[in-house]
Amino acid sequence: MRHLLSTQDLSRGDAIRILDTAEEMAAVGDREVKKLPALRGRTVVNLFFEDSTRTRISFEAAAKRLSADVINFAAKGSSVSKGESLKDTAQTLAAMGADAVVIRHWASGAPHRLASTDWIDAAVINAGDGTHEHPTQALLDAFTMRRHWSRLAGTGSQGADLSGMRVAIAGDVLHSRVARSNVWLLRTLGADVTLVAPPTLLPIGVEQWPCKVSYDMDRTLEQGVDAVMMLRVQGERMNASFFPSTREYSRRWGFDDNRLRSLDTLGMKDTIIMHPGPMNRGLEISSAAADSPRSTVLAQVRNGVSVRMAALYLLLSGDTREPAATPGAGHFAGAAPSTKESI
C-alpha cells in the first residue's frame, strides 16, 4: 500500500503507527525551530477541486515543517475551469516531479482513480472525496480522543488504542465523509460507536456499518458517552428538505446549551465535545458548547498538522523502522530517503 485513501484499508497496527508517529511530530511543534529535514528535496502537491481552509492549510504546514517543497493547486482559476480532465492535470503534476499528491475532489472515488492508474508515480492522500471518506480527518479525531482517553487512564498514549471508549457521532451522517471514515477507524481502534441522526440523514445500508444507530440524542447521552462528535449540516449538498426546519433540527439533534448542562447532571464530567469544522453555530452546536472547556475543536485543528506530518513522513520517507524515541533524533534528523513506503 503506497497511498492513504480510506480508513477501511488501515489495520490496527497501521493506525497505531500513524498515531504514535504523530505524537512525535506534535513534540516538534513545541520546539523553537519547528522543522525537520526529513522530506527535504521532496515535492508535495495540494490538489484541491473543492474549497477548503483547515485541511489545505494543515497539509501545507505539515509538508513545510518536514522541509518538503509545496505546490498549491486550486481548480478555480486553473485549466480545470477550462475543461481539463483529472488525467491531464495528473500528468502535468507528474511532469513537475510530484512525490505526493494530496487530493480533495467533489467526486467520490477520485483519489482511488488517481492512485490506481499510471497517470502519476506519486503517493496519493485522500483529503476528502465527495461524500465518501476523509481519512486524515478521522486520524486526527482519533489522535485527539486517544490523548484524552490516555489522560483519563493516567497512561501514556504511545501504543494505545481506544478500547472501551464510547463515541457518539451526531448529525448529517448522510452527507458526511468524516462520519464514514471515523466509524471504520474508531471501530478498528476498539471504540464503541453510535450514530445519532434523523432517519432522513442516515445513508442506505447504514445497518451494515460497524456501529449502533440511534434517532434520539437525549437517550444516547443518558446511556453514557465519552466523546460527542457533532457533524456539520451540509446545506450545499442538500437538494431536498431533510428536516422540517432548522429550529426543529437544533432542538432534536443539535448540541445546545441544555444538553451541555445535562452532561454534568448525568455525571459525565470528562466527556468531550468535538466538531470537524466549519461549525454552524446555533444549528448543530451552540456557541456555549463550541467554546466550553469540554470542546476540542481547536485541539483538533492543531492535531491535524501533526497527523498529516506523520502521514506524509511514513508515505515518503521510505523508513520502515519504528519512530525514534525523541523527535529530531535518529532518522528524523537524517537526509531525505530515496524511496516511498506504505504506511
Mind sketching the topology for me?
Layout (H helix, E strand, L loop, with lengths): L11 H17 L14 E6 L5 H12 L3 E6 L11 H10 L4 E6 L4 H6 L7 E7 L5 H19 L12 E5 L6 H12 L3 E5 L15 E3 L2 H6 L4 E4 L15 H8 L3 H9 L6 E3 L12 H4 L6 H20 L27
Parallel strand pairs: 1-2, 1-3, 3-4, 5-6, 5-8, 6-7, 8-9
Order of helices and strands: HEHEHEHEHEHEEHEHHEHH
> Could you name the CATH topology of the largest domain?
Rossmann fold
For the termini, the CA-CA separation is: 7 Å
Please report which band the strand proportion falls in: under 5%, 5-15%, 15-25%, 25-35%, 35-45% or over 45%. Answer: 5-15%
The outline comes out as: globular
CA-based gyration radius = 20 Å
Number of helices: 11
CATH class of the largest domain: Alpha Beta
Mean pLDDT: 89
- In total, the number of strands is 9
CATH homologous superfamily label of the largest domain? Aspartate/ornithine carbamoyltransferase
What is the domain total for the residues?
2
Helix/strand structural class: alpha/beta
Q: Biggest β-sheet: count, sense, barrel?
A: 5 strands, parallel
Give the strand order, joined by hyphens, for the main sheet: 7-6-5-8-9
* The CATH architecture of the largest domain: 3-Layer(aba) Sandwich
Low-confidence stretches: 320-342
**Overall helicity:** 25-40%
Walk me through what this model shows:
- The chain is an alpha/beta fold.
- It has two domains: 7-134 and 301-333, Rossmann fold; 136-299, Aspartate/ornithine carbamoyltransferase (Rossmann fold), CATH 3.40.50.
- Helix content is 36%, strand content 13%.
- The protein contains eleven helices and nine strands.
- The protein has helices at residues 12-28, 54-65, 86-95, 110-115, 135-153, 177-188, 217-222, 246-253, 257-265, 287-290, 297-316, and strands spanning 43-48, 69-74, 100-105, 123-129, 166-170, 192-196, 212-214, 227-230, 272-274.
- β5 (166-170), α6 (177-188) and β6 form a beta-alpha-beta unit.
- The longest helix is centred in the last third of the chain and has 20 residues, at 297-316.
- The relative contact order is 0.17.
